[in-house]
Amino acid sequence: MTGGIADMSSDSEVYFVGVDGGGSKTLAVVVDEQGRERGRGLAGSGNQSVVGLDVAVAQLRAAVEQAVQEAGCTLPLRAAWLGVAGMDSAYDHDRLLPHLSSLAQTVLLTNDAELVLGALDKRVGVALIAGTGAIALGRNMQGATARASGWGYLLDEVGSGYELGRQALVAVVRAADGRGPQTILLELILEHWQIRDVSGVLVEVYAKGGTAKIARLSSLVFMAARAGDIVAQRIVQCAVDELALVAATVGHKLHLTEQGLPIALGGSLLIHEVDYREQVLQGLSHRCRLGQIAIAEQPALIAARAAMQFISLRQ
Fold it and tell me: What are the φ/ψ torsions at residue 83 (nearest 5 degrees)?
């Protein structure tokens, strides 16, 4: 490979990669041994519980390979930390890791919430993520961990983009039936999906649907709520209350609330929907005193630099 960054690389350079594999997209970031970003790669969902093992592996590898190409280096790298949504058990880990172990000499594979914890001092506190899915994961000074929510879209991921979108669809069909109050969500969703009437919702959800597609409707819920739509406001408030409960529950389990709960926020909704984030923090402050508050805007970069430090500590 010639030109650009590739000309600057050499056999003596060492590279690390961090991967943030969410429910909708996967972002990989490569850094050099000084922690400087050298390349990025973007691909689709790496959540094997949503897209299946083969697709998840392909997306995760594609993001890393794109970042490596941009950085002008080659695989395997020195170390990789991949945080992937849906990594909820040893079975998930053991099923996915063999397909990714060739990416680096040392590969760490965890839930994506672990990356967000890296935004907190000493990685102690609670990471709350709300994107396509939602989960809270915490760690205390003794190394004990706890989690809440993140049970998948069929069971419980309250406050997530998918659940907000699903609730919007429920409100729309109830309004169309006359069983529920009228809401501007109907007009917004029809326009968004470019369908003529509510009957088209069936096709969009059951024939063309998917978690990411439904999660994208969350932006319409926030739009309607800001416009004063009572139905949308209730959906948002319910999500806020549940996310605050999820984070506080983890904090109480780990006895992190006594001195002020350190909280790191991640996921597309809590990063980009500022009003939503502030409402969640306010709701959480009613349940416990808050300590450090961190916004994990670049979990993949956090992971890449953490992978670098992980190796340096063992050399």
Answer: -105, 115
- The answer to whether 120 touches 300, Cβ cutoff 8 Å, is no
Residue 200: strand, helix, or coil: helix
Structural domains of the chain, ranges and CATH numbers in brackets: 4-117+299-312 (3.30.420.40), 120-295 (3.30.420.40)
> How many Cα neighbours within 13 Å face the side chain of 202?
4
**Residue burial 28-67, b: 16+ Cβ < 10 Å; e: rest:** bbbbbeeeebbbbbebbbbbbbbbeeeebbbbbbbbbebb
**Two structure tokens written together for 182:** 């009228």
Q: Name the residue type at position 47.
A: N
Decide: pTM greater than 0.85.
no
User: CA nearest 172: which of 84, 97, 113, 231?
Assistant: 231
Provide the H-helix boundaries in 98-217: 113-117, 161-177, 185-193, 200-202, 211-215
Q: Name the residue among 118, 164, 130 with its Cα closest to residue 284.
A: 130
In eight-state DSSP terms, residue 111 is -
**Contact of 184 with 159, CB cutoff 8 Å:** no
Question: For residue 151, which amino acid is it?
Answer: W
Unique residue bearing structure tokens 């309004």: 175
Decide if 307 contacts 32 (C-beta within 8 A): no
Tens of pLDDT, residue by residue over 201-220, are: 999 998 887 888 999 999 99
Tokens found for residue 131: 């994107």
Burial class, 197, CB count within 10 angstroms (exposed 0-12 / middle 13-18 / buried 19+): exposed
- Tokens representing residue 17 in the block: 């990669």
Q: Give 134-161 pLDDT, tens digit per residue.
A: 999 999 999 999 999 988 888 888 999 9
